[in-house]
Design a protein that fits this description.
Blueprint lengths: L3 E2 L5 E6 L13 H20 L2 E12 L8 E11 L3 E11 L6 E14 L11 E2 L3 H29 L7
Parallel strand pairs: 1-7
Antiparallel strand pairs: 2-4, 3-6, 4-5, 5-6
């Protein structure tokens, strides 16, 4: 299978936040932002694999600054790492007050996206071609996050199998 460059699947989405996206105080709901993050990451996964792709997990979704009605929300999503069937996508979210031009980094997240075959089961995806030092750094960091996820998953399975192994 021929590899693909990060730039071939990168997605930039922008959307103005409207009253239906927010609470009565004018703050956009975190769930609205989460949905947009998920949509951007899935689009990256589909573009890379050219298959249906679904979210398997979300790591570290942190909200740094609020988003308000009227802000232009911009999401930048790109691949950090590709495994056999899964892909880690990083998404950075920024809000811009279009009147003042003020921009704020509002949130970031790492999502694991899995490509699905026609049978609905995970399928192999093209390898990732890294072209820059920044892409190599992000790939290295993604591999470390993957290792931590695998270790956490093993602990969770052990805990489910034997409650006595679970720390309180």
């Amino acid at each position: 299978m021929e590899g693909k460059r990060v730039s071939e699947s990168t997605v930039v989405m922008a959307q103005v936040m409207n009253p239906q996206d927010a609470n009565p105080a004018g703050n956009v709901h975190g769930g609205v932002i989460m949905k947009l993050i998920d949509s951007a990451a899935a689009a990256v996964g589909v573009r890379h694999s050219r298959r249906n792709a679904v979210t398997a997990s979300i790591d570290r979704l942190d909200f740094h600054n609020p988003v308000y009605i009227g802000d232009l929300l911009t999401l930048r999503a790109s691949l950090n790492m590709v495994g056999k069937t899964s892909m880690e996508v990083g998404v950075r979210v920024e809000a811009e007050n279009v009147i003042t031009g003020e921009q704020r980094h509002t949130s970031s997240a790492y999502l694991t996206i899995v490509a699905l075959g026609d049978d609905g089961k995970p399928m192999a995806v093209p390898p990732l071609i890294l072209e820059s030092d920044d892409e190599a750094r992000r790939n290295h960091e993604a591999k470390a996050r993957r290792q931590m996820r695998l270790e956490e998953r093993k602990k969770e399975r052990d805990c489910q199998e034997n409650i006595e192994r679970c720390p309180l």
